[in-house]
Design a protein that fits this description.
Blueprint: E1 46-49, H1 75-84, E2 88-94, H2 105-122, E3 130-134, H3 150-164, E4 189-192, H4 195-204, E5 207-210, H5 217-225
Parallel strand pairs: 1-2, 1-4, 2-3, 4-5
Amino acid sequence: MTSSRRRSRLTTGCDAVLAPHRDDVELTSPLKLPELPNESAWNGGIAYLDRDGVIIEGSENYVNTIDEVVLLPDSAKSIGDLRRAGYRICVVTNQSPINRGIWSSSNLSMIHDRMCQLLLLGDKDALIDLILFSPYAPWEGAWARKPYPGMLEAGRQLIDAASAESSMRGLALKFGDDWINRPDESTSVMVGDRGVDMSAAARFGVDGILCDPNKGLAEVIGSILGGSY
């Protein structure tokens, strides 16, 4: 995994453009996207979702084991509904316990596996296309840690590349001012339960929707999908 330590105008205030991570693989490893329900064509929209307080119950002491993974009410159905409406799903989550030395990235991977299992038990279409996490502690000043938009920037580039070719051969991610000719995010949305999520959305240029951490995604799914939902 590569990272850039060049400062740019967009990254002022960050100590380094440290890249986000994926579970168990390198960031630009091949990514096979699951088919959308009913063989729907992708409209280019991505639902960027925070994890705790949006999909699963959060805790001030972190979600530390698979036994602590509890879905928020109707989060599985809400993700299924997003995919049935043509959205790709990208989870973007700050996970500083890794660099704080509390637990490892392998532990986080097991937590995410459990979350994905529970989602599919709740709705067969509730598949996650991509999970990105930031292992960095707040004092590391990482562009990939919300309130900065590095995870969203990587998510868009990875999903776009995987849509064109799952091997993503030759992909070189760009961050901040180094990424020009960005795609339109008008059909995308970011859902989070905290101000840092909304700040990341604003910096990235995508609509941000704040939800109650006790209700999560299900509270705001109607405002995303509209119509007769």
